[in-house]
Write a structure and sequence with these properties.
two-stranded parallel sheet; 7-stranded parallel sheet
Amino acid sequence: MQREISAIIAGSTGLVGNELLHLLLGNGAMEKVYALTRTALPYRSKNLVQIVHPELRITEWEDTDPVPELGFICLGTTKKSAGSKAGLEAVDVELVKSVARSMLQLGVQHLVVISSLGATPYSPSFYLRCKAKMEQALSDMGFSHCIFVRPGPLTGERSESRQDEVLLQKGLELAQPLLVGPLSHLAPIPAEDVALTMLNLAMKALELPPTPAEIHSGNALRRHTADAQHTQA
């Protein structure tokens, strides 16, 4: 008999986060799914507990509540949405760090975070440097597993459309036959596939000894997606 576990997710209104929340709620092994959110979600489930705070803080916790072993962070913005580089860093680095610390304090041992293809502290892109800074900070926090998925362009329906992203998706779809060799990492990937892979990696981590930070990106992420789909089937 499979033991029951609990999970907490931040960013469940985003493209990947929304898909992941539904996967968690549909997973028979989940005793509780805590959704850390700025506003109440329009979902009802006996397993769902909403933690609503405008700054994504956890200010109250009942000692009788099951401790979440798994944590998922699907937070992120763009410079255009944030309004400035400082605004981007406030979300993609500082907010993610704050949420991760809160999850660690609750008892989360296995953390899976969505990042971005190309994240590196040496990137000319401020956005990608922020993602790398975030990854390093979370890796140093002491989770048993800290897993980063770095998808390229995502496909799926956002609640709030990002016009620049839509144009990029269309351009890459047209160019798909040309995305071979190193360029194949840029092929768009469905958000639902990324979500399924994040859940699959977290479930596997429950059975593994502690390891340094893991990174799954590009074609490697695509292979994990195929494995996750096979496992689900």
